[in-house]
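Our consortium's second objective concerns turning raw sequence data into structural hypotheses that experimental partners can test. To show how far this objective has progressed, the report includes one record in full. It was chosen at random from the queue rather than selected for favorable results. The single chain below, 397 residues long, was entered without modification.
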Amino acid sequence: MSTTTPTPSHEAPGTTHNGQAPKAQGRRPMFTYERWRESIGIPIHRGYYMEDLTTLELGLWKERQAQAAFIELVGQEGITETRVTEIPPRGSLPAVQLAFDEVVYVLKGWGATTVWRPGSSEKKSFEWHEASMFMLPRHYLHEIHNTHGSEPIRLLHYNYLPLAMSAVPDPTFFFADGADAEDRARDLDLKQFYGEATLRKEEHEGVLWGRRKEAWVGNFFPDMRVWDRLESNATRGAGGRSVFIEFPGSEMTCHMSVFAPRTYKKAHRHGPGRAIVIPTGEGYSVMWQEGKEKVVAPWRPGSMLTPPDRWFHQHFNVGSAPARYLALHPPMQFYGHAEKIEDRAKDQIEYVDEDPWIREKFEGELRARDLTSLVPAEAYEQRDYTWSTSAAASQAD
């Protein structure tokens, strides 16, 4: 068993100089999920972020017949699970049936997944490649195959297993294939289940940002690097655009934000448990607990970070191309957004109110790359500044 943490490449005043999580104060008994995870015997990587999941140290998970590792970032503990699995060329994972929904994001490689209901001969297979995302439905069997002849594949798995094991403290329940397994599996039309995503439009207050939100509903998204069905998310700045995703029959959700090169998003905060991965772009994020030192997390495709509970954080694109971050969400009760409009304002820092170090560091990072900021001067002077939708879209495309 090993525990590792990465070291940031960006250092500045008021910034921690390592990615390590603070040491726990005192000892406490482990809960069911932690005991089960320790029993697997593969690496557990901890910290504030992981700079490159594609090179992360793995270990043999004998039962799954694959190299794998768990990731537990500050803000995930006891809520969500993330793990990385590597499958060798032409290899396959043995069939498994999970009693929970799981989202899979492809870090590298290409392959195929086969899904079927216990006791049924009907199977659904679909192919995927780097930056694909799909959901594995609870109580259904699935196999994952590497169809590449010479390169391994790496997958990132995300689920709510820590919470589930606290509700049902019996690990065998979540992986068993008992006689009643077929009865627990809901009826799914697998041909449609992994078909094209559909747009849901509803007039409602909105769970995440307190306004109308469109959501795309589906279980297979072929390439998050090029997904272009986006809507404006002007309140976060940088002319950003977003897509909100729901998985049918599941409480699992996620969203992806796309924003222009040489810009950055406004600082904001919410609850714990998210896993943010990077499909495209070069940049960094700054995370801090109000009144305390800052953590700088550099990122590129394959990076992952988790903003801890109620920590402010903001994302910076220091490249010459648009950046995308994909945020996998914890259960709704952990979103941590204020319910009143006047309180929501306290969860976001406008450009005019931010610590001057934020802008200084951003512009310094750009200078090191022979680039200049595209954030308009008016954004730092006008609290109600609105980015030009057409200009922002042209920069982000």
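The partners drew two points from this record. The chain has a mean pLDDT of 87. Helices lie at 32-40, 161-167, 181-184, 190-193, 341-344, 356-367, 389-396. Both points have been shared with the crystallography group to help prioritize constructs.
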